[in-house]
TrEMBL record:
Pfam families: UBX (PF00789). Residues 264-273 have a biased composition (Basic and acidic residues). This is UBX domain-containing protein. Keywords: Coiled coil. GO terms for molecular function: ubiquitin binding. SUPFAM superfamilies: Thioredoxin-like (SSF52833), Ubiquitin-like (SSF54236).
Length: 402
């Protein structure tokens, strides 16, 4: 048993197989029944078919190599099921599940296994939606071990304890491989031995809606081994999910650190470009006109720090010249020593303040342009108001409310 558990551990650790969907008959699709007249006309052909089929079985008994020859390419574990599917009425997935549950209870008595009364695909979707494990139980009445395995292993108290413990988050879907849906599931899961149980769980590391087989329990095993393998498959799946979450958290942390570093680098570059732009703009400012210029405009600007800038401007000086003086006032003394500074490449400068007159209040936006003389007059006292995001939002709110 220890070797089998070790093999199960290594198998699960190597990776997971996708849990396939299967094509089934729609729930509400009616079963086709030919009209009575056609059924009567085809009765001779039906009798001939039954006679030939009986002869085939007779030849198969007399010459055992014939069935093996015809079924050489089929799954050995499903050959008996394939022969018997012709004797069972084809039903929709939900009705097939209800029949399986009814036949299971008739064969093995009352039990506490919460079989889902849904088709296989719907059970997969429910497990995916509810983030639970799905046990896929496939049995074949053709196999002699089935009845004893159900009685001694699947219905054993220690196995039922694992299945029914709500902390384990287990759903159970069962199927008889003599039915078409369960037969397709067995083929898709490449079942080679019965009875068979697969542990399926959502694996978001594969895709957003992927369901994968994280454990397989095949053949007759003891209740202890069954419960151990079931716990092992769950534990490894949970550990794998936690590891995935840790990897995603680490990746998110690294991405945020990289984004923060990029923001910091961008901010440092912006500051360097702004300093270079101020140096470049300061060296290109027009000289202050002398006292002999009668039409010169005299402006006094108070900064947020309380410091005042006093400067005379030519009467035709653009309003942006006044903004540039305020922006570059710290650079004006060094303008003579900072000649030859080029404009920073790719940098788009925006003034982060506006000039206003206190009483009566008037705003002189730089984007309006025009000369200082036309906008402000022969002189004036102005204030510097920083432009912030909060102020922009307040202005937008006032505009909407008005």
């Amino acid at each position: 048993m220890t070797e089998d558990i070790a093999e199960q551990l290594s198998s699960v650790a190597r990776g997971t197989d996708p849990a396939p969907r299967v094509d089934t008959q729609p729930e509400n699709q009616p079963v086709y029944r030919p009209p009575f007249v056609l059924a009567l006309l085809f009765t001779p052909f039906n009798l001939i078919y039954r006679l030939l089929y009986g002869s085939y079985r007779l030849f198969g008994t007399l010459f055992p190599f014939l069935p093996r020859l015809f079924n050489a390419t089929s799954n050995p574990a499903l050959q008996g099921a394939r022969r018997n599917t012709t004797g069972r009425r084809s039903l929709g997935p939900q009705d097939t599940a209800a029949r399986f549950i009814r036949e299971f209870e008739e064969e093995h008595g009352s039990h506490s296994i919460p079989f889902l009364e849904n088709g296989y695909n719907m059970s997969l979707e429910k497990a995916h939606r509810d983030l639970k494990f799905l046990l896929v139980v496939l049995i074949s009445p053709e196999h002699d071990d089935t009845s004893g395995w159900v009685r001694d292993t699947l219905l054993a108290p220690e196995v039922l304890e694992v299945i029914n413990d709500p902390r384990n988050n287990i759903l159970v879907w069962g199927g008889n491989v003599q039915d078409s849906e369960a037969y397709q599931v067995a083929n898709s899961l490449r079942v080679t031995k019965f009875p068979f149980v697969a542990v399926v769980v959502h694996t978001p590391n594969v895709s957003s809606n992927a369901m994968s087989v994280v454990g397989r329990i095949t053949g007759p095993v003891s209740p202890t081994e069954f419960a151990t393998k079931l716990r092992t498959a769950r534990s490894l799946a949970i550990d794998r999910e936690r590891a995935r979450q840790r990897r995603e958290a680490e990746a998110a942390r690294l991405q945020e650190e990289q984004a923060a570093a990029e923001r910091q680098a961008a901010e440092e570059k912006r500051r360097r470009d702004l300093t270079q732009w101020r140096q470049w703009r300061a060296q290109s400012l027009s000289r202050e006109p002398g006292t002999d210029v009668k039409d010169a405009v005299r402006i006094s600007v108070r900064l947020p720090s309380g410091e005042r800038i006093m400067r005379r401007f030519a009467p035709d000086a653009d309003l942006e010249e006044l903004y540039a003086v305020v922006e570059c006032h710290e650079m004006l003394e060094d303008a003579g020593r900072a000649m030859g500074i080029s404009q920073p490449e790719g940098f788009v400068h925006q003034y982060a303040f506006r000039l206003v007159s206190p009483m009566p209040r008037a705003v002189f936006p730089v984007e309006d342009g025009g000369s200082i003389r036309d906008k402000i007059g022969r002189g004036g006292n102005l204030l510097v108001e920083p432009i912030g995001d909060d102020e922009d939002e307040d202005e937008e709110g006032d505009a909407l409310s008005s």
